[in-house]
């Protein structure tokens, strides 16, 4: 600590690059400071530091580590406390550019495994970004001393060293409850569970906070179930959606898409008070939509599309500018290839000719002139042959009444089970569909040629997440704006790291299938943590959060001109 003071004094007033001499480890009374990366300019990306607090200064309760989920929830809670302490820190550090900035990769409403806080039996590690103070492009030593010796200790004092036992207990209890609900869902073959009283609408299109004065969710009696969960006096009651084909219908603005959006985000757990803390969905559920203009590389879309007029092979379909129907077919098949067990679809974001083809159109356009077999004719095969469930929002067509296992109608934001009425209508107005193939078909296991990613990187081997919805790889951009289940910028940063890892540090002698890559990523994260893509553990891991395998696959699949065998 004294050595750090001396070094700051020595470089005060010098060129900003002299800050590089501070890289290293410094020992403070209650924590160790690791300065891992120093920015080259006060206006550049901020410096990266780690605060490592040994167990003797912050007792680590073994209860926190009893389950993986508990550990994640405690780490999440600590990150939120640090974020709050940073926001309330009143000490002003002045200077040019990002001088005095302190930030943690703080969580939003979802609880994700992230690198911002890391916990083990020996210590707690907190990763921060800081702006080293400068006047113009010269070092401001006085303000730097204030940053390291006042601001950072104060943040720790009001966060990690001020943890409340009740808050920690609540975090652990929520983790236990989510574990039990997930286990019950698996035992009972539920695709989703939504507790009564849940608040599904969000505050706005750009806010993930719950909408004030929203109508609380209330399950139809036909779908209502009760679960006994720990740390709660009363059982939890809500709506269970069973495996199979579930249709969500209703008039416009009655809450259909709001319900589906809650389900698509329910693959992640949420904090208490979010309104969706007891809204849980099959973790292998994938939202599927049309995506005009996306690139497709050798995807087998033949279960849905065959005999294209231009003679394209739909068993290894490739396009730099896919249509709505071909893109949605590819999105379904890529999700199945990655291991999806449930599909979530909203007609508003779907290609109409991919979803349905009514009787009148069949009469006008003969089957031999229509290459598309619509989803309505394949969804039962998905259920019966592949055990893949579908939850579908549909407000404009009743063709799905014939094949739905249950139909839920949203009426002024209240769900009503109208399955019997829908079946009666279907019986009274039968739909004649052209003969479809006897089986669903299959996807192809595709091999990723990693050299084609390496070529994209260029000489500097640069991959960077520009924001939540785009990754810059070399000079190309991977557009993830329509991959709707990425909920955090840090997930995209982790995906960018994985793409570079595939190209530069491939552990395999031969190119592997996409699925083998996804399995490898999950295995390495389990063994080494989110920083497994780094060469050394003794450095700042970056601002990372755990993505699902489906979003990793989505990024790989959207890399233009990637080579696939």
General description of the model:
The protein has 565 residues and is α+β, with helices and mostly antiparallel strands. Helices cover 31% and strands 20% of the residues. It is built from 14 helices and 27 strands. Strands 1, 2, 3, 4, 6 and 7 form a 6-stranded antiparallel β-sheet that branches. α1 (2-11) runs antiparallel to α3. The N and C termini lie far apart (56 Å). The model has no long low-confidence stretch (mean pLDDT 93).
In a few lines, what is going on in this structure?
The protein has 565 residues and is α+β, with helices and mostly antiparallel strands. The protein is 31% helix and 20% strand.
Key descriptive features of the protein:
565 residues; alpha+beta; 6-stranded antiparallel beta sheet; 6-stranded mixed beta sheet; 31% helix; globular
Q: Please tell me what the overall shape is.
A: globular
* Distance, first to last CA: 56 Å
Largest beta-sheet characterization: 6 strands, antiparallel
- The number of helical elements comes to 14
Overall pLDDT metric: 93
Strand tally:
27
Weakly predicted, low-confidence segments: none
Strand content: 15-25%
DSSP helix fraction: 25-40%
Which assembly state applies to the chains in this document?
A: single chain
Topology:
Elements: H1 2-11, E1 24-27, E2 32-37, E3 47-54, H2 68-88, E4 102-103, E5 110-111, E6 117-119, E7 123-130, E8 134-135, E9 138-139, H3 141-157, H4 165-188, E10 190-195, E11 202-204, E12 207-210, E13 224-227, E14 236-242, E15 245-249, H5 256-265, E16 269-270, E17 279-281, E18 285-288, E19 296-299, E20 317-319, H6 324-338, E21 342-346, H7 352-355, H8 359-364, H9 379-386, E22 389-393, E23 406-411, E24 414-417, H10 419-428, H11 450-457, E25 463-467, E26 470-473, E27 476-479, H12 489-504, H13 514-528, H14 549-557
Helix pairs in contact: 1-3, 2-4, 11-12
